[in-house]
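Practice problem: predict the structure.
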Amino acid sequence: MSEEMMKQGVLVRGFGGFYVAVDEDGTEHILRCKKKFRRMRISPLVGDRVAFLPGEGEEHGWLEDILPRTSECLRPPVANVSLLLVVICPSPEPDMLLVDRMLIRARLQGMRTTIVVNKSDLDPTLAERVRQEYAGADCPVLSASAKEETGLEALREMMTGAGICCLTGQSGVGKSTLLNALLGLELETGDISEKIQRGKNTTRHAQLLISGDIRVLDTAGFSLLELDARTEPEKLREAYPEFLPHEGCCRFSPCLHDREPGCAVTAAVTAGEIAPGRVERYRQLLADVRQTWKQRYN
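Answer:
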């Protein structure tokens, strides 16, 4: 097959060493991955924009090239996410440290972020509390209930034409249930284990779902996310938009906003301008980043 037959598309899922790409016409193609990617130590990811040669007849095609990525996540392993939607809910109890980890990873890779409070029918006050805590963080907070079918239109509007969106969060927060309600799908869902109050993980492999102008990844939930080992301690504060108005106002420069004397961020917390919980968790993560940075050559 000649190179004139080369097509471009996006990888929507992988299985058993094969990959499925959707071209510009919406046609699916099953592709084999060339050995050159293994030699280059590059693994195709769901969300990758690719060039490929389609198969003929019953033959599978060949993945020829992976186009440059705008972002890359390892857990879950996906690429080119433009909008990260971090889903939380009243039960299981939100892990806000995990939320902040995900927001940091997203911001440092140039993604836009939103927090979606699902199952709002269980606690109508949670979304407003989260909204107040993230005021100034350039991270909208949407309230939704897949069960009651509320808040879905605002979520659809945000996702339409936004590039590749990714719903992520702890297992059991209702990501697949939300996608079913948003897109009219029938993805497998799971109930919360009463014994451990964590979700039963029903999404085992990432896949890209396409519905009109909405492109969204369905990914497995997870409860632990480490920050990139290459993150410099001085870079962490850049992932906190609410710190920006106070940069350059501290007594010392540079200031990591870690209880240094004359820290303007500490003063902003005292003045009620920044949520104490956000800064407390920032300092926890800063300690982790500092420790990892020290050990990067070990």
